[in-house]
Amino acid sequence: MTQNAIFLPVLALAAVTFVVLMLIPVRRFRAAFAGTVTPADFALGESANVPGQVSLANRNYMNLLEAPLLFYAVCIALYVTQQVDALALNIAWAYVILRGLHSLVHITYNNVVHRLSLFALSNVALVALWVVFGMRVIEGA
């Protein structure tokens, strides 16, 4: 297996992040053109006047910049230490798929139970990826 394969899930999660980023202005402009928000509603972030459907994309984008930083870091660490194998790659893909599904639920029908379940499972995958990396480092020390 090529070590570069670990960057495929990295690229996929970056793509999800960019798609969500593009939704933010789309939803904000739609709301502005519909007259449901004004520029003042965004002067200090998002005011209470901003409808949920408008603010969800922004909140999801923030989610994609939080825990995924640990995902990017462990993927780079796996690559640098030449520890990428099928197990690590499969866990990385599981994480990306779960985070993608989490984003989809969050920015569409936003069922909290579904969203929380996907978020929790993605965190389990992230911890598992770090455990795999940690075990490999300990074994090689």
List the helices and strands and how they pair.
Elements: H1 7-34, H2 52-63, H3 68-80, H4 86-107, H5 112-140
Helix pairs in contact: 1-2, 1-4, 3-5, 4-5
Give a brief outline of the structure.
The chain has helices spanning 7-34, 52-63, 68-80, 86-107, 112-140.
Describe the structure.
- The protein is mainly α and 141 residues long.
- Helices cover 74% and strands 0% of the residues.
- It has five helices and no strands.
- It has helices spanning 7-34, 52-63, 68-80, 86-107, 112-140.
- Helix 3 packs parallel to helix 5 (112-140).
- The longest helix is centred in the last third of the chain and has 29 residues, at 112-140.
- The two termini are 23 Å apart.
- The model has no long low-confidence stretch (mean pLDDT 95).
Count of DSSP E strands?
0
Fraction of helical residues? over 70%
Strand percent estimate: under 5%
Largest sheet: none
Distance between the termini: 23 Å
Oligomer: single chain
CA-atom Rg in angstroms: 18 Å
The class by helix and strand makeup works out as mainly alpha
In the predicted model, the low-confidence regions spanning at least 5 consecutive residues are none
The gross shape turns out to be elongated
Total count of helical runs of at least 4 residues: 5
**Pattern of helices and strands:** HHHHH
Report the average pLDDT across residues.
Answer: 95
List keywords for this structure.
single chain; 141 residues; mainly alpha
